[in-house]
Task: inverse folding
């Protein structure tokens, strides 16, 4: 058996989306232990599945996250021929992600491309004829996962990972330099320096881990606040996102006077959306003033601000005041997505009246997106951007300058639609177990053609990245502990190299080569 | 290219000799190759351009260092020569990194250069099956077999034919060598020795991809002209340790001398001089085309690449006992002589240095090593092996290791035995050869400990544990050495057992000993084995608590201590090795048609067809082959095995 088969793997075997139910499959020796650890049966009448032979069903609570049904298939009576546990849970993305994270935290590894089928083949659950289909499946899934990973990485995650892992490479490069090139005995100041570099690396990685959909956002939802000057289309935006006529819309500036809140779910993620009163300058109206005060307080609690900027441009002094406001929010560490509203009108304007051109001068670095309630595709794009933000803390978008140039879409642009998630159909867990070889081959072929075993690549890729970063943090922390307790450099280096190897699963780095290049570029080496 | 039969039919053809194995070049690779083959019972001819300069150390006058010291120990553990000779001609010993952990502790010795050369000549001359011949080899005899070519011998510059079914090429930096000093470019090998000029074309004719690499060496200066008393002295270690396991714990062994090295620094003036004249450096003027190593930059390179450094180390090292020449490590350069002289005036202690040999850069031809099998045989040319710098490596030790393996495998090829492949978990030799053959290299390749995945297992202290059983099995390690090895292992086991049973009670004495060592006193009775694991304690420090401790040789004590102290991490590494071996043991049959394997990405298909890796593990290290491609390969192999049981079962 292939060595990695000692590991227990997990992935969802149902397509993503808001479908009612999702099925997580866990396969391998540790499947039972993981289920025992995370699953609390709701009724004592049901035996714990791990104590049973063959096929068992039980229901209860999974990791405190969701009420689930657990099905257990004991080896060899399962799809893969190993112990398999299937968790049927609610289908929302947030629940899936939380469950997947809990399974990985308990010791399972994310399933590789086609891995369930490959294990089934290796364990004699399929005959020779299935081999080619399995290979096809691996190839197709790998390609799909690479695409998804690429898309996720495009959105600044890659740059962020590289920036954050750069510290770690730097620290290990120093350590390796001391071992391979320094030739002298250890100096206390080197150990001190390494300690502080590792502390920095660990902090950087922790931040990185935190930027991935944090438990809080999944559990409590993301607070999104819409802000901007009067009449720019804020309330229309809230209505469009929530799909309801929640706020009053009118052509009269100052229509919204109080904050308007609504909860909605996007791909299973909970979002608290708040519309605010237009931030008029010097309004004499006390009601409007109170509205503005409330808007300010809503902004204070925002995880993300959608700042709407629509034609016509404000008078120059008001523009400056708006700019100040935005700068202040940025200085407070707020995340802002600039929404260039009423895009339908904007496109008809001469350049000097184009808010995009103005924004490109005043906010060249702000992530920016165009929006019109009249363009159908804009809504999908905006939603994808929000989901991307929840999942990995980055806003995939263009800059105002790119938009002002009215260029064709930049390749680094929005992830566009949900190509990733469409068209994947589950193998169906009932069938997959019972099908005989000929059927198995046909169904595998079909699945390979469709691209997958029914996994949600986006969720899995995301969870895999998070798992890698979590392990890397742990390893750097261990290295730091070892360094503190006086362990020798060679031991400290083992954990650090392992941490970088974990991260390389995301970045695709050749750790050893990258490290050597780092050593030579940072340190003047050689005699 | 002619076959032996065809060459023989040429007018005035003269068959001057015949052997089982011919080794071309008597540098560190060639000497090890020839000795190994002869000791394994083959008749060997070793060709050298001049008998007066074999086993030369044309660059740094030392052997060992980080990763390199480990590899010398490995060569010795397998039954090679380098360690024994280095021990005899050692004039300074240092254990590098003694405080940085056992994985990176590395022995290094300054060597009496001419003594080493004469010593190697004596060893070669006294090997019964080995013939040493001074002649330049300029051609190969190659027959066309059905699906591959077969080497049949060599042709020398005088036109003589030598017949042999095995040929090992070890031409070092002599292959189409060009020595560069400023504007002066001459066709030459190192140390004014003649370059090897015919073989380069032969490689091209064989269709082997070649390229030019570059390296360099600093000048040599007369001892009386170097003011070492103004410099910081770097003495030898108090206790010298031999490279060879044969000399370990031998009370009669000691180094030939304990000389010191000296440290000085370049100055701002050096920097200014070199920057002002950078246009005169052939590196920057474009005269040098070859790719130089990043780890061995010339002084002008260091100044250009690290302008923020105001000074650079210079180590003044003795080069022997019968010479006044001193080596100046750190001053490698290809600047014109004028600048070299001016540069010396800017370095404290070197102001009046007499240049006996100027510094130079050397460019030479080498082969892309990915055309080799892991045995070091050229793919598709039966019996032709390459070893040393021709494979893109650098360093005496790296060359010697390849020579040893090529020598062994040239013999095994003739005996129809499986080639000897040391894997990455068994030795630096394995890391070195696998890196070269599987990944290739874009610059002269130097071993570094950071290249080893299982560094904690590849230690200098346990090279014998790792490799002597292999040396014994293939018949290269002499019987006395094997018996000594077995005795040492027994002693280690016995002491390990004793320590794990020995209990230390809390007592006034134990409190005092532990407190004195900066450790916490015992709360309960503790096994000595566990006490040893505290980072602040050591075997030596705990002696007062162990009155019955036997008097053991240093090598045994060292092994015991490391194995106990690092037990946890060693176990983790062993687990990783077990996983690594699983993929290594999955052999890929030669006849696989990668183009037809579905699910492999295009790049992987091309790379795999091109390289034809020997195992799934090796395939996984080829750049451009992804983890998913490996999964596909595994399924393919499983399918293959189920179809035709036998040829390619997992071992
Ligand atoms: N052309 C065009 N008009 C829009 C768009 N979005 C909103 N509008 C119009 O702009 C006007 C103002 O819209 P609201 O959504 O009420 O604007 P608001 O920012 O909430 O205004 P206040 O609450 O007054 O601050 C209405 O007449 C909308 O119909 C759009 O995308 N394109
Ligand atoms: Mg409104």
Result:
């Amino acid at each position: 058996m292939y060595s990695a088969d000692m590991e227990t793997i997990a992935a969802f075997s149902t397509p993503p989306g808001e479908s009612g139910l999702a099925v997580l499959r866990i396969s391998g020796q540790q499947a039972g232990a993981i289920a025992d650890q995370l699953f609390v049966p709701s009724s004592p009448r049901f035996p714990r599945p791990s104590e049973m032979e063959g096929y068992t069903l039980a229901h209860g609570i999974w990791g405190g996250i969701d009420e689930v049904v657990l099905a257990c298939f004991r080896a060899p009576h399962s799809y893969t021929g190993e112990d398999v546990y299937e968790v049927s849970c609610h289908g929302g993305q947030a629940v899936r992600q939380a469950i997947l994270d809990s399974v990985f935290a308990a010791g399972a590894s994310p399933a590789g491309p086609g891995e369930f089928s490959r294990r089934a083949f290796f364990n004699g659950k399929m005959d020779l004829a299935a081999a080619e289909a399995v290979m096809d499946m691996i190839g197709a899934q790998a390609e799909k996962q690479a695409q998804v990973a690429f898309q996720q990485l495009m959105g600044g995650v890659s740059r962020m990972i590289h920036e954050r892992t750069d510290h770690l490479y730097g620290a290990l490069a120093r350590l390796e330099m001391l071992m391979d090139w320094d030739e002298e005995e250890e100096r206390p100041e080197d150990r001190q320096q390494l300690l502080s570099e590792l502390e920095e690396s660990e902090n950087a990685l922790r931040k990185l881990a935190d930027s991935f959909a944090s438990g809080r956002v999944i559990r409590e939802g993301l607070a999104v606040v819409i802000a901007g000057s009067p009449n720019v289309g804020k309330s229309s935006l809230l209505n469009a996102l929530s799909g309801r006529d929640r706020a009053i819309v009118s052509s009269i500036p100052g229509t919204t006077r109080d904050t308007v809140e609504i909860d909605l779910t996007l791909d299973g993620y909970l979002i608290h959306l708040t519309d605010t009163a237009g931030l008029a300058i010097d309004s004499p109206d006390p009601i409007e003033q109170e509205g503005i005060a409330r808007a300010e307080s809503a902004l204070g609690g925002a995880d993300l601000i959608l700042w709407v900027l629509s034609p016509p441009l404000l008078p120059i002094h008001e523009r400056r005041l708006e700019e100040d406001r935005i700068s202040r929010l940025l200085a407070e560490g707020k995340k802002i997505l600039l929404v260039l509203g009423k895009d339908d009108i904007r496109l008809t304007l001469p350049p000097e009246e184009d808010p995009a051109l103005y924004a490109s001068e005043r906010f060249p670095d702000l992530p920016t997106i165009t929006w019109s309630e009249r363009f159908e595709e804009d809504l999908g794009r905006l939603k994808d951007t929000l989901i991307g933000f929840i999942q990995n803390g980055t806003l995939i978008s263009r800059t105002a300058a790119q938009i002002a140039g009215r260029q064709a879409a930049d390749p680094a642009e929005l992830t566009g639609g949900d190509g990733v998630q469409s068209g994947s159909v589950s193998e169906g867990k009932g069938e997959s177990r019972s099908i005989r070889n000929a059927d198995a081959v046909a169904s595998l072929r079909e699945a390979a053609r469709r691209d997958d075993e029914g996994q949600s690549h986006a969720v899995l890729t995301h969870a895999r990245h998070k798992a890698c970063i979590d392990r890397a943090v742990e390893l750097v922390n261990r290295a730091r502990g070892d360094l503190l307790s006086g362990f020798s450099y060679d031991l400290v280096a083992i954990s650090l190299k392992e941490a970088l190897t974990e991260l390389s699963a995301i970045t695709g780095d050749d750790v050893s080569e990258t490290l050597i290049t780092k050593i030579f570029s940072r340190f003047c080496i050689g005699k | 290219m002619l076959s032996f039969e065809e060459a023989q039919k040429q007018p005035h053809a003269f068959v001057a000799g015949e052997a089982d194995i011919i080794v071309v070049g008597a540098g560190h690779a060639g000497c090890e190759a020839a000795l190994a083959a002869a000791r394994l019972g083959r008749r060997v001819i070793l060709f050298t351009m001049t008998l007066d300069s074999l086993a030369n150390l044309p660059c740094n006058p030392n052997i060992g260092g980080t990763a390199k010291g480990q590899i010398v120990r490995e060569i010795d553990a397998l039954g090679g020569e380098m360690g024994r000779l280095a021990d005899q001609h050692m004039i300074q010993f240092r254990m590098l990194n003694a405080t940085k952990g056992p994985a990176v502790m590395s022995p290094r010795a300054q060597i009496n250069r001419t003594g080493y050369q004469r010593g190697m000549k004596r060893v070669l001359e006294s090997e019964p099956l080995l013939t040493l011949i001074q002649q330049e080899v300029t051609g190969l005899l190659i027959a066309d077999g059905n699906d591959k070519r077969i080497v049949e011998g060599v042709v020398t510059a005088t036109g003589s034919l030598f017949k042999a079914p095995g040929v090992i090429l070890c031409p070092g930096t002599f292959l189409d060598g060009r020595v560069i000093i400023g504007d002066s470019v001459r066709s030459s090998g190192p140390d004014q020795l003649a370059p090897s000029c015919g073989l380069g074309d032969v490689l091209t004719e064989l269709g082997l991809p070649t390229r030019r690499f570059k390296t360099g060496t600093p000048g040599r200066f007369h001892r009386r002209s170097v003011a070492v008393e103004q410099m910081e002295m770097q003495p030898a270690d108090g206790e010298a340790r031999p490279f060879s396991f044969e000399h370990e714990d031998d009370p009669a062994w000691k180094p030939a001398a304990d000389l010191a090295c000296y440290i000085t620094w370049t100055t701002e003036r050096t920097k200014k001089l070199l920057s002002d004249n950078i246009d005169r450096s052939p590196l920057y003027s474009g005269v040098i085309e070859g790719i130089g190593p990043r780890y061995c930059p010339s002084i002008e390179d260091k100044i250009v690449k690290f302008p923020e450094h105001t000074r650079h180390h210079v180590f003044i090292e003795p080069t022997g006992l019968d010479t006044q020449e001193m080596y100046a490590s750190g001053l490698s350069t290809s600047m014109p002589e004028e600048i070299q002289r001016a540069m010396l005036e800017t370095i404290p202690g070197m102001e009046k240095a007499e240049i006996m040999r100027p510094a130079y850069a050397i460019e030479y031809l080498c082969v892309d090593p990915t055309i080799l099998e892991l045995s070091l045989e050229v793919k598709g040319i039966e019996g032709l092996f390459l070893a040393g710098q021709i494979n893109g490596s650098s360093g005496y030790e790296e060359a010697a290791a390849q020579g040893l393996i090529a020598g062994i495998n040239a013999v095994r090829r003739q005996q129809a035995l499986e080639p000897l492949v040391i894997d990455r978990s068994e030795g630096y030799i394995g890391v070195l050869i696998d890196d070269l053959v599987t990944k290739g290299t874009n610059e002269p390749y130097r071993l570094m400990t950071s290249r080893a995945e299982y560094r904690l297992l590849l230690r200098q202290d346990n090279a014998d544990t790792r490799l002597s059983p292999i040396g014994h099995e293939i018949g290269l390690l002499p019987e006395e050495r094997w018996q000594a090895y077995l005795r040492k292992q027994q002693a280690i086991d016995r002491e390990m057992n004793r320590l794990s049973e020995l209990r230390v009670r809390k007592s006034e004495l134990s409190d005092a000993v532990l407190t004195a060592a900066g450790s916490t006193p015992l709360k309960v009775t503790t096994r000595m084995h566990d006490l040893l694991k505290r980072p602040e304690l050591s075997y030596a420090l705990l002696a007062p608590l162990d009155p019955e401790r036997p008097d053991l040789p240093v090598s045994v004590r060292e092994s015991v201590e490391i194995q106990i102290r690092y037990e946890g991490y060693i176990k983790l590494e062993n687990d990783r090795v077990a996983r690594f071996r699983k993929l290594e043991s999955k052999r890929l049959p030669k006849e696989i048609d990668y183009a037809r394997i579905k699910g492999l990405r295009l790049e992987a298909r091309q790379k795999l067809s091109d390289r034809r890796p020997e195992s799934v593990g090796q395939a996984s290290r080829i750049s451009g082959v992804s983890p998913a491609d490996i999964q596909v390969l595994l399924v393919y192999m499983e399918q293959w095995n189920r179809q035709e049981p036998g040829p390619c079962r997992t071992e």
Summary: The pocket of magnesium ion (ligand 2) is lined by residues A 234-235, 247, 255-256 (CB under 6 Å). The longest strand of chain B covers residues 137-144. Chain B has 21 helices and 25 strands.
